[in-house]
Amino acid sequence: MGVKRGDLSVTIGEFKALCKKGHLQSATQILHLLEEQGYKKSSYTYVCLLQGCTQSNALEEGKLIHGNVIKYESDTNIFIYTTIIHMYARCGSFEDARVVFDRMSERNLVTWSTMIEAYCQHERHEEALDAFLRMRKEGLVAC
């Protein structure tokens, strides 16, 4: 797909759509165009890219994006780290998902649920139950 200069809002929409479909190369081309037009990467940008990695099972690209998050995002939030956990688990790197989860200083119900899903996906059912019980012990309960 060729990338043309155009309306910034349309280009951001195209970037998001390509990420959702797992078309990382085209999404990256658009991201470079956006940056040329003054767009600054944000947590949202990284989340879109990570979702693209998940969609296309692109573990190595996901690791690079995770490295960029660590390097460039001083205000990373719980949402981006939950997306990283999800990407690692879905791309078959359970241990990386677990490391990210264990290093998080703050977790919410979605983060715990994502990690429990990862345990189940990798047939670690006892650990999934243990995580569920730890989550409840911390006072987080699914409605």
Sequence stretches where pLDDT stays below 50 over 5 or more residues: none
The end-to-end distance, rounded to whole angstroms, is 44 Å
Query: Pairing-aware structural class of the strands and helices?
Result: mainly alpha
β-strand amount:
under 5%
Q: What is the strand tally?
A: 0
User: What's the helical proportion of residues?
Assistant: over 70%
Query: With helices defined by DSSP (H or I, 4 residues minimum), what is the helix count?
Result: 8
Give the biggest beta sheet. Answer: none
**What sort of overall outline do the alpha carbons produce when their principal axes are compared?**
elongated
- Taking all Cα atoms into account, the compactness measure Rg is 17 Å
Taken in chain order, the helices and strands follow as: HHHHHHHH
Whole-number average pLDDT? 88
What does this structure look like?
Helix 1 packs antiparallel against helix 2 (24-36) and helix 5 (78-90) runs parallel beside helix 7. The protein has helices at 8-21, 24-36, 43-56, 59-72, 78-90, 94-103, 109-121, 125-137. The chain has eight helices and no strands. The protein has a domain at 41-137. It is mainly alpha-helical and 143 residues long.
Keywords:
143 residues; mainly alpha; 8 helices
Give me a quick take on this structure.
The chain is mainly α and 143 residues long.
